[in-house]
Design goal:
Elements: E1 19-27, H1 38-42, E2 46-49, E3 53-57, E4 63-70, E5 73-76, E6 80-81, H2 88-100, E7 103-110, E8 117-121, E9 127-134, H3 136-140, E10 145-151, E11 156-157, E12 167-174, E13 190-192, E14 206-215, E15 226-237
Antiparallel strand pairs: 1-2, 1-9, 2-3, 3-4, 4-5, 4-6, 5-7, 7-8, 8-9, 10-12, 10-14, 11-12, 12-13, 14-15
Amino acid sequence: MPTNAATSPASPAVTLPAYYWRLASATDASGKSIAALQAGVEHPLRLAFTSDALNIRGGCNAQFGGYTYKDGVLHVANLASTMKACEQSLMQLDAEIGQRMKGDLRATLSGDAAEPGLELVAKDGSVLTFVGEPTPETLYGSAGEIRFLEVAAKKVECSHPMIPGYQCLMVRERRYNEAGIQQPAKDKWHPLYQSIEGYEHRDGVRTVLRVKQYDWKNPPADAPSKVYVLDMVVEQDASGKK
């Protein structure tokens, strides 16, 4: 059973699964910057943890595998990877991070829940420093519910209480059966008076999105109580046909 609770000097609220960990710097044993990993600082490269699995994204391919964290040691099992081809710098980034993110790494969590940090020291002495960015579950204080939203090709002007002339997305919920077959649409189109995080609408393109819907436990006064975060683009149709 993985142990994810942080110990001093980090706040007890800082745990690995509560954040995405963005690569901030990478140096070798002598303190020199590792050139091949600089693409991961600029791109950026991020680690994401569940209770027992690690996922690395930001290079060419996603890398993923099991891990345990206990007594300041992060143990990473052999990582699997997707197999697409990309530009050489990103493929080199995959190779470099995969070479270091394996076996036992000395791990130090620091900071507090607002500004956490993670330092990993690999067996070759290289030091990877990460900055924590809260996951939506941490940020909104709830578990996300998977929903499928169809987004119409055209936005419409809608009556937004805060923004005159606001253009709303037109959406309706879609459902799939156990075999993954999309069912006929039953819900009516309706305006969405907020954005979908991570989604950029292209005029004239009808889209079906898999989103996570979060109940925002303590939203600001002018913010919605529900938040939608893009999880995956399921289909796109540039003809705009329904």
